[in-house]
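Moderator note: this is an archived Q&A kept for reference. The question asked for a predicted structure of one protein chain; the sequence and the answer are reproduced below.
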Amino acid sequence: MKDLTIAELSQPVRDFLAAVEEEHGAVIRGDAEGRMLLSITPSRPASKEARDRAMERLRDVQRRVGDDLRTLDVSEDEFDRAARDDDRILLPEHPA
């Protein structure tokens, strides 16, 4: 990936990006032939309630994963190492 400054972009691209509304995200990347690909994604900030619910769900998932790793007697570091070193994670069969 190469970082570009706005000045390196052509004027039509700069004009297009300037028109993107604040609540939209722009992703610019290059393809294999070096052409620039641009996508605009509408977004809006989540409400405090939605963020709080998402954080609660995340904490619940983390708790359940921690419980499962303890049941399997596998540390988080061992799991991370296995995931990094091999795309087939070999763990003992999970008790039913």
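Archived answer notes: The two ends are 45 Å apart (CA to CA).
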